[in-house]
């Protein structure tokens, strides 16, 4: 089903939640999955309909986000599979739906706390950190640091991915420095570490994030600055082991890049650009997951164990 068909199936409350995701008003895979969980709970708890109709709506919403957001972040496919594990259960009840969603939330929260603990150890002693592109995991980690850190935030212009950090980190009383992407190299020498999130993680440690993450990784390697990827194993895409790789994610950025231009000027240029890039393992100091501070080569073993656990219906 297309976007408008799915939206039309939803209540007004759920349409507002749906729009937060599809319009980009809220960023971060973790935030989006949390919102989808709320949509599922609203369908289960608030709609007056037979359980089979509720299940059909939930499945339609789940499949829509797996087919759309799942292209950039495999977390959506893993999370939707876990949160909708009740769909083929006989005599499914509202309580079964609630249990599936709330169990996911509980496991995800516990994993995030572990990542924060390990990430704080990884940057212990640091006074200045650079963050590239919004990540709800990275936000929670930086909010858990002692106030007064100097935080460089490049704009991440392709999706305006730096700005969502500003409000929550301002409240955390850090010293925020918002800079153009092109200035990353000039301030990197002052940084003790760089931290990014990931949309998808391959078993070899390759980490996918917004365009610019790859440039920053190369710069970090050149200047010997630790480059950390903070991500739950939920984002692992095991299909890479079968030679099945992500499609290129690109978009027309004309509206963003030519804002304020004369129409004739804007019409004269092509602004089609890649949005998501893979950062190769050789540029990554560590992938910080709920399993620990992993050198990229160690991701494979943890990914296999994780996949086996969730395939058997285990917890996150």
Structural class: alpha/beta
Distance between the termini: 29 Å
As a percent range, the share of helical residues equals: 40-55%
How would you state the average pLDDT, rounded? 93
Shape: globular
Radius of gyration: 20 Å
Q: CATH-wise, what's the superfamily of the largest domain?
A: Translation initiation factor eif-2b, domain 2
Tell me the number of helical segments per DSSP (H or I, 4 or more residues long).
13
Low-confidence stretches: none
CATH class of the largest domain: Alpha Beta
Which percent band covers the strand fraction?
Answer: 5-15%
CATH topology label of the largest domain: Rossmann fold
Number of strands: 12
CATH architecture of the largest domain: 3-Layer(aba) Sandwich
Order of helices and strands: HHHHHHEHEHEHEEEHEEHHEEEEH
Largest sheet: 7 strands, mixed
The tally of structural domains comes to 2
Strand order of the largest sheet: 3-2-1-4-7-11-12
